[in-house]
Structure formats: C-alpha cells, structure tokens
Design brief:
Helix content: 25-40%
Radius of gyration: 31 Å
Shape: flat
Strand content: 15-25%
Distance between the termini: 32 Å
CATH class of the largest domain: Alpha Beta
Length: about 800
C-alpha cells in the first residue's frame, strides 16, 4: 500500500495528490482509499474531495455510492462544474435534469452545454440563457425554439435599454432548439440588472455590481425619542398555509396602540388563494397592499415598500413566520436601549446565529401555541438581555429609522433573497451601528420554503459577493460561533423548559466510546418507545469534572454544561431534580466518579446499570447491588453479568439487524486485513501498533487497514498500515466491501459491550476475530475466531496466522 506522507506538504494535500495519481494510473482501489481518508479528516473536505472519491467509487463499480458523494459535493458547491458534469452522466433522470440546470448557469464548454440543453429539452423546456459579467462587459448566450428574436434588457435607475438578437444557425446550440446566439454588450456604471427574455418570458436575470439606491441621508445625530411608529413589511409570493398562519399571528398581536402599520407586498404571486387572502387583509385601515406587476424577488419587494415609508422604524418580516404577543413593542424597546443599535433580531427555531436550541441549525417551528409558550419563557428568563451579533437575520429584522436613513435600501447585488440582510447589516456597522439579538423575544420561522433545493445554490453564489465586499466576514462568524455569546440565553430558556418536556429517561455515561453506546441507546428509546432520552456525559478535565446534559436526539436541551470542582455535583443535582425522571441508566459504571453516582442515588429514581465491561471494582459493587437491573447488549455481556450474581439481568434488543447472507468463502491466504478500534485509548493504540508489526513479519505481503479512528492516526501511517478515519456503524459493511477486506480483527484491549461498530461488524458477512471476554461461554459463527482475552499481541498473532491462512483452529 502506498505511503501518503510528503515532507513539507500538508497531509490532506498529499492525499488528494496521490489520489489523482492513482486515478491516472488506473488504480481505483488505491484512489478510493486515499480519497476516503481525505473525506474523513480535518480540515473539512471540500467538494473536490468528494469528487475524487466519487470517481474512484464509480470505477470500482459502486455507482450508487458515487452518486451519494456527488450529492454531498453539491451541498458544498452546488454549481461545481466537475460535480455537475459527472451527475449529468451518472445520475437518474431527476438528478440529470438538476445537473443540466446548474450547467446552464455556469458551463462554458458548448459541447457539454449541448448535452445539458438536450436533457432539459426532453423534459419540455424550450428556451435557455446564461449571462456572465467581466468588469463592464456582459457576455452571454441564449437558445430558444420560438421564431421571435430574444431581448436582452439592461436596466438602470432611470431607464431600460433593450437589444434584440436573431438566431445564428451556425451556433453550436442551434441544433438542439433551432435558434441560438451568443452576445456581448457593455454596461453603464449605473446599470443594476440585466435580463434575457423571449416572448415576454424571462430566461435569465442577473444583478450587476453593487448598485443600490440610497434613501435620503442626514448627518449622524442622536436619534429622536421613539414615538412608537413602526411599519412591518411582509413580502408574499407562495405557500398559502404559512402565509395565513403568519398574518393571523401578526394581526392578533399588533398591540393595543394601533400606531404601527403593515405593508403587504404581493410579489406577483401565482396563487389565487394568496391574492384573495391579501385582498381581505388589506381591508383593515392599518394594512396597505402593494402589488408588483412582475416578480421582483425579496429585495425588490422590500425596497419598493421601503420607498413608501418616510418615517418611523421598520420590521422586515418573512411570510413564513409566527410572531408572539407584543413583539413589535418589545423589539422596539431593545432597539432604543442605546443610540448606536441599528438592527435587532429575536431568537428563533430557524434564525442562523439566533437559532434555538442549536445555533445555525434549524428545528421544527411548531404551531402558534408552541411559539407563544417559548416566547413567554424567553421574556421571563432573558428580560433585559441584549447580545451583539455580527449581523441581523432577515426573517424578522427590526431596523431603526436612524440606521435606515444612513444605510439605504437593500442591495440588488444578491440573487433572489439570500444574504442581502447580511449585506445591509454589515453596511450598518460601517456607519457605526450595532446589530444585536433580543433573546427575550422568540419568533417561529418555517424557513427555506420559497426556493426549496435552490437555497444552497443561491447562498453559495451570494456568499461570494459578501466575501468580496467584506473579506473578514466569515472569519468573524467563525469566532462568534466559537465564543457563542448567546449560550447563556439559550441555557436559561432550556432550564425553564426541562420540567415541561417529556424526558423520562436519563443516560449517564463517561465521554468517549462509552458515550457512543449511550447515544445508540437514546436512538433505540426514540424509535421503539417514542421517548426522548437525556444524556449526562461526564468529561474528565485537568483538576475537575465537566458534565454536559443534552438531548440524545438533538432536541432540548443542548446548552446545559456544569463544572464540577472537586467532583461536587450540587448544581447539577439541583437541575436534575427539575426533570420528571422515570428511570436512570448508568453506562460504564466503573468509570463514573463515585461523587456522581452517589448524587444520582439521592434523586430517589430507580436506576439500571448498562454493562459495558466485565470488571467489578470493589468501590462500585454497592452500585451494582442497588441497581434494579443489569442491562446487557449481547451474549458476551450476558455471560459477564452472570458473575455479578444480580437477581435481574435483562437482554436488550439488538440495534443492528443480523444479516442472513452466508459468510464470504475463506481464501487460502488473506491479502487485506481490517483492524477495528473501539475505545481509541493509548493502551489500544500500543496494542494495535505492535500487532501490525508482528503481522507484517509473519505475513509480509498482507495489507492492513485500520477501519476507524484512533488516538494517533499518524503513528499507524508510519507502520505502513492505512487508517480510514472516523466511520459510523451504518456504513461499516460498505467500507469493508469497498476496501476489499477479507477478514476483520476487533482490537479491544478491554471490553466495551454493545459498541455500535463491533455490533455492526459481528452482524456483517465478513469473518471476524474478536476477544472472547466470556472465555468460551458464547457460541461463535462458523468462520469467526474467538481470541483468548486479554492477551499480549504476540499470542494474538499466533492465533491469527493460521486463521488468516484459512486453517481451522480449535
């Protein structure tokens, strides 16, 4: 197996280089190993890594897996040429059409464009266009079926210049639709939008430069006293049910003062139900309806409304939100707490930085009652709190009049309504204004309904524009995420929610591999009993302990962390008493500090011990004796539990289905051996390194792959073995197949019963050698090898050599 380290060059770059070399020399197996390793290590892989692995997978016959990697690459770079070119060749009909649409917008090779146009033409499309901008030069092409010429229009603030083009029959794309032409035009400094249309239908529309029309500005001065005047702007296009829910919550919570107004913008909605709903809503004296003759997108709709508002503050509100009681007055209170605050954003289930319970991760919005409940708690526990954030979020963005006068309208430089809010807020900072979050207000936000799967394409495209204007923006966001100033606000909200959420089971585990078993148990609770299990993860820090309390399936809570100096869990115990617990399960009981186990028993809740090891330390025997049950995951754990002489030993259902397919036929000589790490500790590391050295001496031609993550991957690369990096249990058998492994050796130096990786390996169809902690009490499958445990590496190799040669062992 090739070594992948190069002096003076980052390891991940070496992997990519050697992978490309392996593909060029026609060795897809080696290419897959290198690309797979690159996709699993830091720094995080980019789209290129997934493309390399997809290419290798496709060449070794794993077409479905190759397409999965292309889908992953599209999540990172939706318009990547290499990804979409391959998807156009390998994908199903839907995937090919999606790739063709992406290539229409970014491909410059007319041979590939001809195939993309042909693919879309088969599905009924009859006209296409693309435009690119280089400085003040506009270049593009169009292909269409109708006989009329195409119209290229360039709009500026005062006029719209149109130019018509007839088809060129010699154009490379003319063979597909009958008409095609390439064009090149110059744009004036004031131009802000170019569009290509045929028969009145817009084929392509692209903003030009960073042109935006500023509102009348005045010299900076302290803002006048807030008089309660606020205008809420709601652009509407689609999703009737979400729009109705938004307007119902908005009109119910406008407040008793009646001083704020609502501007609804019908952005040329094609839904007659929305048109009717907006017409009915506009009958109120406090509601004004603007109707766009054609779809202008979020930016155009908001800017039109902003130009109608000459005084007072403004709230930009998405039509898929649910707002709580008095949210306008409460946001205004925060906005005017300081003269330098320009924008205010509330907490939300889907609000980027301000998302709850996990920042930058969307969760279910819930209904109006759930939003109201969360908002009431946030108002109580976070009253008076103001947290600075890099930028506000446009789902519900409060803008003061002073800020609006200084900054102007939203920039037209962003396609179809993503990141224009970021641009506005970053420009506000240039004018000396702060962007803050009001964690005392909670707004529900469905999110991503307007553009569906196109959102990622738009975000990536617009992010390039943001980075060109504000080069430090992404690094600042990374620093904000690392510091997480909103964590205390989320924690306060979660603490108040604990008693009301239906958590009934607490899983207590040390960090590391044991926590992986606990998370698998949490998933089992959710799938089999519908229960959301809490996980209390104990982490050993220098001089003290840290306890992290979180929902095992991503729900509330996620921000509860406790420092336990000298092992004193008083604060933790106070929080646990708030939770209506029905049962506690303790994992790896001999590793859990005695102070924690004693505190848990003070709760007076029945507890079980989930057996992960066969050790029975004296200091923990009373814990076992007082447990209602010993829970065991497999036959080895059951055999080990017998030594505890407990009255109730319960076998848990297997989480990994055992495969019925026969084992692979034994080879005369095994050429590729997989080593499976479990605990990732130093003891296991030394054992595996020694095992590799001895195996290579005994069988020089064998290739060894470490299937998983270790505590020091580089150490194994120096032995000549190959390390895959972190893998999940549900992909283990696929990894074995793609690496062409003949046999597997589980390398646990002490028991870890129920580990998902071991369970998946034992359920697979490849022969496994494993340490038999039951000392022969458990039956093994034909072809598997039960190793005496624990044993020195030399004794293990003595048992492995005949097994690897296909010789049966007693």
């Amino acid at each position: 197996m090739r070594r992948v380290e190069c002096a003076g060059e980052p390891h991940h770059q070496c992997l990519e280089m050697h992978c490309a070399e392996a593909l060029q020399r026609g060795d897809p197996d080696a290419a897959y190993r290198l690309a797979d390793r690159r996709c699993r290590i830091r720094p995080l892989p980019d789209a290129h890594c997934f493309v390399l692995r997809a290419e290798a997978l496709y060449r070794i016959g794993e077409r479905a897996a190759a397409i999965e990697d292309l889908e992953a690459a599209l999540e990172i770079a939706p318009e990547d040429l290499a990804v979409n070119r391959r998807m156009l060749n390998w994908g199903n009909a839907i995937q090919r059409r999606s790739a063709a649409r992406a290539l229409i917008s970014c491909e410059h090779d007319f041979r590939i464009l001809r195939r993309a146009v042909g693919c879309l033409h088969k599905s009924g499309a009859i006209a296409f266009a693309n435009v690119t901008i280089r400085n003040d030069l506009i270049e593009g092409w169009a292909a269409w079926q109708a006989r009329q010429p195409i119209c290229v229009a360039i709009a500026d603030e005062s006029s719209c210049r149109e130019q018509y083009f007839e088809g060129d029959r010699w154009h490379p794309l003319a063979t597909e639709l009958g008409n095609a032409v390439s064009f090149r035009l110059s744009a004036s400094a004031t131009a802000y939008l170019i569009s290509v249309a045929t028969k009145g239908n817009i084929l392509c529309e692209l903003p030009l430069g960073n042109q935006y029309r500023p509102l009348p500005s005045t010299p900076r001065r302290a803002p006048s006293r807030y008089d309660g005047t606020v205008t809420i702007i709601v652009p509407v296009y689609g999703d009737l049910s979400a729009t109705r829910a938004c307007l119902e919550s908005l009109f119910a919570q406008r407040g008793a003062s009646g001083r704020h107004q609502v501007i609804l913008v019908n952005d040329a909605s094609p839904d007659p139900g929305i048109v009717q709903l907006l017409g009915q809503s506009a009958k109120s004296k406090q509601v004004r309806l603007l109707t766009n003759p054609r779809n202008l997108g979020f930016v155009g709709a908001v800017n039109r409304a902003l130009q109608e508002v000459s005084a007072g503050d403004v709230i930009l509100l998405n039509a898929d939100t649910i707002v709580p009681e008095n949210f306008v007055e409460r946001l205004a209170l925060v906005a005017h707490a300081s003269a330098d605050i320009g924008t205010v954003t509330p907490l939300s289930n889907n609000g980027e930085f301000t998302s709850f319970p996990v920042p930058n991760q969307a969760s279910d919005a819930g209904n109006a009652e759930e939003v109201s409940m969360l908002d009431r708690i946030a108002a109580r526990v976070n009253a008076g709190k103001i947290v600075d954030i890099p930028n506000g979020i446009g789902f519900c963005l409060y803008i003061t009049r002073a800020c609006l006068d200084a900054v102007g309208l939203l920039s037209r430089n962003y396609s179809r309504g993503y990141l224009e809010d970021v641009d506005f807020c970053l420009r506000a900072r240039l004018h000396g204004f702060r962007n803050v979050c009001a964690p005392s207000v909670y707004v529900g936000h469905a999110g991503s309904r307007s553009f569906g799967r196109q959102k990622r394409v738009l975000v990536v495209r617009n992010l390039r524009v943001i980075e060109a204007k504000f080069p430090t923006y992404r690094s600042e966001c990374a620093d904000f995420v690392l510091a997480d100033p909103l964590k205390a606000s989320r924690r306060a909200l979660e603490l108040s929610l604990l008693s009301s959420f239906p958590h009934r089971v607490l899983l207590v585990t040390p960090a590391g591999s044991a926590a992986e078993v606990a998370h698998e148990r949490a998933r089992q609770f959710l799938s089999e009993e519908g229960l959301a299990a809490l996980i209390l993860e104990i982490r050993h820090q220098p001089g003290h302990l840290t306890a992290l309390l979180h929902d095992g399936n991503g729900g509330v809570p996620q921000s509860l962390e406790f420092s336990l100096p000298a092992g004193n869990p008083a604060d933790l115990l106070e929080v646990l008493r708030m939770i209506p617990l029905k049962r506690i399960e303790i994992f790896d009981h001999e590793v859990i500090p005695r102070s924690i186990s004693d505190a848990l028993r003070q709760l007076g809740v029945a507890f079980d011990v989930c057996l992960l090891s066969n050790s029975n330390p004296i200091g923990h025997r009373d814990l076992i004796a007082q447990a209602e049950r010993i829970l065991v995951s497999d036959a080895q754990a059951e055999a080990a539990a017998a030594s505890f002489k407990h009255t109730c030993i319960t076998r848990l259902a297997e989480t990994v289905p055992r495969l019925i397919s026969p084992l692979f036929p034994a080879k005369s000589v095994v050429t590729r051996l997989g080593l499976l790490p479990t605990r990732r500790c130093m003891q296991e590391l030394h054992f595996m390194r020694e095992l590799i050295v001895l195996l290579r001496r005994a069988q020089p031609g064998i290739e060894i792959v470490v299937a998983g993550q270790t505590s020091d991957d580089a150490a194994f690369n120096r032995t000549g073995a190959f390390v895959t990096g972190l893998i999940e249990a549900d992909e283990l058998n696929a990894i074995f197949r793609r690496y062409r492994l003949d046999r597997i050796v589980c390398c646990a130096t002490r028991p870890l019963f129920g580990h998902p990786l071991v369970a998946a390996a034992m359920a697979g169809s490849i022969p496994v050698a494993f340490p038999d902690w039951s000392r022969g009490a458990c039956r093994t499958r034909d072809g598997d090898l039960a190793l005496d445990a624990p044993m020195p590496a030399a004794h293990v190799v003595a048992q492995l050599v005949p097994w690897l040669a296909g010789v049966s062992t007693p």
